[in-house]
TrEMBL record:
Residue segments, region Disordered: 32-51
Protein name: SNI1
InterPro entries listed in its UniProt record: SNI1 (IPR034561)
One GO CC term, this protein: Smc5-Smc6 complex
Domain of life, per lineage: Eukaryota
TM helices/strands, residue ranges: none
């Protein structure tokens, strides 16, 4: 079982890693995937967000 100090260190290290990854790789998602009302058969499109 992890001690509280070790657990906090792991959480902080994980957060820093996620922040670094976000700086190097843009966020992306597929458009139209959750749109259950859409009757078109067109494939979803990849959308890259620019921040």
């Amino acid at each position: 079982m992890l001690r509280t100090g070790n657990s906090i260190q792991l959480i902080v290290a994980s957060y820093k890693l996620l922040v670094d990854l976000e700086k190097h790789f843009p966020r992306a998602y597929l458009s139209g995937v959750d749109d259950s009302l859409s009757s078109s058969n067109s494939p979803p499109k990849l959308v890259v967000t620019e921040e």
